[in-house]
Amino acid sequence: MNRIILYAIEIVLCSGLFLALYRLLIQRKAGYTFCRRYLVVTLILAAIIPAFDVPVYVEREAPAEAVQPAPEEAVQTSQTIRNSQAAQEIVPSAPASDRNVVAPSFRMNWNALVIAVYLAGLLFSLALMLRSYITIARLKRGSRLSREDGYELAQNDDVESPFSFGKTIFMGRVSSDSERRQILSHEMSHIDHHHTQEKLLMSAIRSCLWFNPFAWLQERHLEEVQEWQADADVLAHGFNVDDYRNTILKTLLGVNPAVTSGLNGSFTKKRMQQMGTEENYGHAAMVSLAAIALTAVCFCLFSLKVQARPVISTDHIKAGDIISGVVSDSIGQTLTMAEDSDLLSIVDRVRKLSSMTSDSLDLMMDQMQKSMREPITVSIMAGGVVNGHVLDIDGNPIRNRDIKVCERDLVDRAVTMGSASGDDGFFRLNIKSPENHLAIEAEGYESQNFPLDHGTFEVRLKPAPVTLKSGDVVRGSVTCSQKTGRFTALHTAIGAKVEEVDGNGNVVASVLTDENGFSLTIVNPKDRLVISTDGYTSVSTAIEIRNYSFTLHKIQ
Fold first, then answer.
1. What is the DSSP string of 389-403?
2. Tens-place pLDDT, residues 484-530
3. Are strands 473-484 and 547-553 parallel, antiparallel or unpaired?
4. Residue 144 and residue 156: Cα distance in Å, rounded?
């Protein structure tokens, strides 16, 4: 089967498995944010996993008669080959006029045809997206624009159903102030959760996988989850559920462009049923484990390619057997293991049987003897792997840092790049050339370079001088970790307190985290940061870098 078509079929099957898991275990059973990320990430994985071609060899032993001819057959075969070569040298080729000329037959280039069909579908899908963008741009140019807190309001009488695109909310005529506030709350939820950017990414992936019906279904499910999350945010702001349902029904007559996030009514019944249902985090660990397990299954099904590797058995070779095709003289006399027991005697036999000069054979024998005396050395770094552990000067792993591991060439240009774990500091890097050097970098520490002269490194980095000053901004992310049995569930901490505490224990600056982490303007770089949230351990650290990554553990 054509390799391109087989790859497309594997993409469809892989995405179908991911979508089946979503429909069975994740939809309406996990949080909205988890569902959104699952739909986008799994569609990308469905295209990446079949692209891998990892060979898995299954050894099978070839029969002896298939690898070595009988003694008399070896001599006959050698003689036949020489006779045919001599005949080709003596018999002249027939002139071109005497040969039968066969016209080449037409053959369909299936690869070119498949690629042409795919590109046509891709261009058509991208053209539909472009038309939607142009429609929105024209609608915005004809609207009355006003800047509000955190968004831009575009009012136009042609907008029958409100929607948002980026940070712009498009709205038509609204009958009451209550409906206006409900609609703005709904669209602000789309803006705060970056639904437009997420939808654009999904539309681009779906355009590349336009032949995959499950890609269209996943895009549809993503729209549903975004609307459910926006509805939940509106009701969380205190609006009455019955009034909000009436507002939705009044705004269903409009038609929105395909790439917008608005109040369209294609799944109105599901939205009405979903209203008032809170996000379910109880299944987070289970669905995460199921998603990882399914990814492993898809990798085994579509990335591992079983191949047979024949193994030639040498048990049947014994003294007196003929080694066909190794060394022979001009009349076809072959060498036997019984007569030649080692390498030097074989070379001596070659000198007797061949027409080579004595000087050439002496040079050959000297080179063979030299190779036998000198052991063959292979650099473990050439195309190999180096491992290492990044620590501070006290021997502790450097935590909560992005540690960069680079192989740099002679002009200090990165050849290969990797990273070390932020929890334990271990790294593994594939090396291209032992002539390069290894560079280790971590924010807040002095970088170091090492020659690639061995395979294991223990790197101890010294703290870099603190350069922060009052008024600088530090940023970071906070993750909550909860361990259940042997499994650990992680989620972004929203509402955690990030406080700057001075030497007397007074809080001089504070901020709460959101989905994007935190951003805090420091008062004194000699103070400390304290991160805390209810039910989890607290973290205290010195202010010494600009970007942080904290993990708070559940108190058991």
1. EEEETTS-B--SS-E
2. 777 788 889 999 999 999 989 899 999 999 989 999 999 998 899 99
3. parallel
4. 7
The long-range contacts involving 291-297, CB below 8 angstroms and separated by at least 24 positions, are: 291/21, 291/26, 291/38, 291/42, 294/17, 294/18, 294/21, 295/45, 295/49, 297/17
Which string of DSSP letters, residue by residue, matches 479-522?
A: EEEEEETTEEEEEE-SS-EEEEE-TTS-EEEEEE-BTTBEEEE-
Q: How far is CA 244 from CA 236, 237, 263, 321, 395, in A?
A: 12, 12, 12, 92, 59
Mean pLDDT, range 462-472, rounded to an integer: 81
- Dihedral of the alpha carbons of 19, 24, 25, 30, in degrees to the nearest 10: 70
pTM: 0.47
Tell me how far apart the terminal alpha carbons of the chain are, to the nearest angstrom.
56
What whole-number distance in Å separates Cα of residue 426 and Cα of residue 398?
10
Residue 347 burial (CB count, 10 A): 17
In whole angstroms, give the CA distance from residue 195 to residue 163: 12
Please report where in the chains the tokens 């010195």 appear, as a residue. Answer: 542
**β partners of residue 476:** 518, 548
Is CATH 2.60.40 correct for 385-461?
A: yes
Instruction: Find how far residue 9's CA is from the centre of its chain.
Output: 20
Q: Are strands 414-420 and 403-408 parallel, antiparallel or unpaired?
A: antiparallel
Q: State the Cα–Cα distance between residues 547 and 40, nearest whole angstrom.
A: 27
Eight-state DSSP code of residue 310: E
Measured at the alpha carbon of residue 440, what is the angle toward residues 434 and 443, in degrees to the nearest 5?
165
> How far are the Cα atoms of 132, 188, 261, 353 from residue 256, in angstroms, in the given order?
9, 17, 8, 89
Cα 521 to Cα 470: distance, rounded to the nearest angstrom: 8
Q: What is the CATH number of domain 473-553?
A: 2.60.40.1120
User: In the beta sheet, which residues pair with residue 418?
Assistant: 405
pLDDT digits (tens, 9 = 90+) for 310-325: 444 444 445 555 544 4
Residues forming a β-bridge with 460? 391
Give the torsion through C-alpha atoms of 292, 296, 297, 302, to 10 deg. 130
Extract the tokens encoding 243.
């009034």
The larger pLDDT score, comparing residue 354 to residue 384, is at 384
Which residue in 213, 212, 205 sits closest to 7, CA to CA? 212
Question: Encoding tokens for residue 342?
Answer: 């080692």
Residue 281: predicted pLDDT:
58
Residue 508 and residue 434 in contact, taking contact as beta carbons nearer than 8 Å: no
